[in-house]
Amino acid sequence: MKSPESTLAHTDETARTLEVGDIFDFDLPMRWADADALNHLNNANYFRYMEEGRIRMFYEGQVQQSTRFSPVVVHCSCDFKKPITYPALVRVSHRVERIGRSSMEHAVDLSVVHGNELELCAQGKSVMVWMDFELHRAHPWPAEVLQALAKCINRR
After folding, report:
1. pLDDT at residue 15 in the model
2. Domain locations in the chain?
3. Is 144 exposed, middle or buried (CB count within 10 Å of its CB: 0-12, 13-18, 19+)?
4. DSSP 20
5. What are the C-alpha distances in Å from 130 to residues 28, 64, 92, 127, 155?
6. DSSP string, 24-54
7. 16-151 carries CATH number 3.10.129.10
8. What is the pLDDT of residue 150?
9. How far apart are CA 152 and CA 147, in angstroms?
10. How far apart are CA 113 and CA 23, in angstroms?
11. Whole-angstrom Cα distance, residue 63 to residue 10?
12. How far is CA 82 from CA 41, 69, 95, 111, in A?
């Protein structure tokens, strides 16, 4: 049986680890089907865009999925500042706010991209916990997972 630390395809002992302030962001085109009757991004889709950011961060970091160990979202909130109207290119930015023993908190910005400018439209927060599903409880973040996530962040 693999240990929770062996959840990556390969590791690098000298790799940098994820730190508070690190940012993962990407651009996501708004789909027409994501709009409501007023052509605004439906409120539920703000949470889906945040989810897409979390999933892409783990995917681009090459964190292997496991049936025993995985992150779960225990909190997600969103403050809507301005409507996002179709068509739009949305920048989703996850900034690490806190890394605990088994939890991680992100501040999330959703902004519309206008050339080189960003228009902030929503701000959110998400908290993930690294879980051991066999024992049904939180488990400390494996160092290899934090190192993998550090590889895909956008250094500023």
Report:
1. 77
2. 16-151
3. buried
4. T
5. 26, 13, 22, 10, 24
6. EEEEEEPPGGGB-TTSBBPHHHHHHHHHHHH
7. yes
8. 95
9. 9
10. 17
11. 10
12. 10, 37, 20, 9
Which H or E run includes 147? helix 143-151
CB atoms within 10 A of CB 14: 6
For tokens 């956008």, name the residue: 154
Number of residues written out for the chain:
156
Q: What is the pLDDT along the chain (156 residues), one digit of tens a residue?
A: 444 444 444 444 567 999 999 999 999 999 999 999 999 999 999 999 999 999 999 999 999 889 999 999 999 999 999 999 999 999 999 999 999 999 999 999 999 999 999 999 999 999 999 999 999 999 999 999 999 999 998 754
Dihedrals phi, psi of 19, to nearest 5 degrees: -130, 160
Burial track 78-103 (b if 16+ CB lie within 10 A, e otherwise): beeeebbebebebbbbbbbeebeebb
- pLDDT in the model for residue 14: 66
Cα–Cα distances in Å, from 22 out to 72, 87, 97, 149?
20, 29, 8, 10
